[in-house]
Amino acid sequence: MPDYRRARATGATWFFTVNLLERHRNTLLVDEIERLRTCLQVERSRRPFAILAWVVLPEHMHWLWRLPPGDSDYSTRWRRIKTDFSRGLSRSERRSKVRQSRGERGIWQRRFWEHQIRDETDLRHHTDYIHFNPVKHDLVARTADWPHSSFAAYVERGVYAPDWAAAPSLKVPGDR
């Protein structure tokens, strides 16, 4: 079995991508957005962390978290959020023989992708990427039209204009 090694910087800021196992035509995350919100709130009450930016799409999501000083354990947080989310859902998903033998659900991809934010430019780039994602995936024509993200809070704080990334041909600042 592979030995997955993750960075362990305490108090760092992290960008995450978390995917459902079955991504094709799956809308579980937006269908169950309140369940997801509750799971995040519960985990934040158990093990605090700051959410800087987020977007939830039908079958995957992106998050920017800042962990408290002295804390580097984002893996446990994600495991608990994914486990809590899965509990209570009907067991109708397809499961491989391996997942069945291990007693695993077939909802989430086992792993997630993380990136430690290096500096303010990197943070800004990843925040833009998060908020542009619904347009990138052709879910909406304007970033402001996607309800499942932190974009509206950023507009309210004056970080973005309400019409930021409104044109379908617009590229995210910093993309090549």
UniProtKB/TrEMBL annotation:
Cited SUPFAM superfamilies: Transposase IS200-like (SSF143422)
Domain Transposase IS200-like: 9-133
Residue spans crossing the bilayer: none
InterPro entries: RAYT_transposase (IPR052715), Transposase_17 (IPR002686), Transposase_17_sf (IPR036515)
Highest taxon listed in the record's lineage: Bacteria
NCBIfam families: REP_Tyr_transpos
Protein name according to UniProt: Transposase
Species whose genome carries this gene: Luteimonas soli
